[in-house]
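As promised in the previous annual report, we have extended the structural survey to additional targets. Below is the entry for Multicopy suppressor of ts gsp1.
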Amino acid sequence: MVQLVKRELYGGAITMDLPADMIDASMFRQIPDTQEVYVSKENPDYSIIIDLLECVPATTLYNALDEHMQEITRLNGATLKTTKMLSQRDTTTNSNINSSSNSETIVPAFAGVRVFEQQVAKFGKQQDVESVVIAIGLVRLPSPANSDILITVNNHVTSSSTATLETLTATLVHSLSVVDPALFVA
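The corresponding structure token record, generated without further manual editing, is:
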């Protein structure tokens, strides 16, 4: 199993356990304020991205996962035809998100994990198409946060197994802790 360490995200407003060998990509490239990006020291094809997003209109876990997967597919320049679903599961019952600032527990509307494989052009070069396994973990925070937290784990097909990525992503979802709910106040 991968060794995990607790990391502060978004200036310490959120904490999450991440693999120990991951480094913060903001140390060497610009990252949007709504994202945290970690890359592996050992494997250049392995990354974890945490996005704070507005809730997509979907009202169920699987519809929300569909919408986020479609957006990732679009951003990757892939198509749903070349996207193969590998697994998905609902983790809502195991996903109470602690808010340590006021000892309240934020109960997500839903949380889940989906793993899929895509053919992706590396760096946008159509001649360099690779198979990538992508696992997404979604946590929907209800009002007053009204946010989707999307955790995306990317890895090259030859270097990862579906079960390993699904388990890791579920672990990341479960380790998420909101330290400062003010992060979600406009």
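Residues 13 and 183 are 6 Å apart (CA to CA). Residues 61-75 form the longest helix (15 residues). These points will be discussed at the next consortium meeting with the crystallography subgroup.
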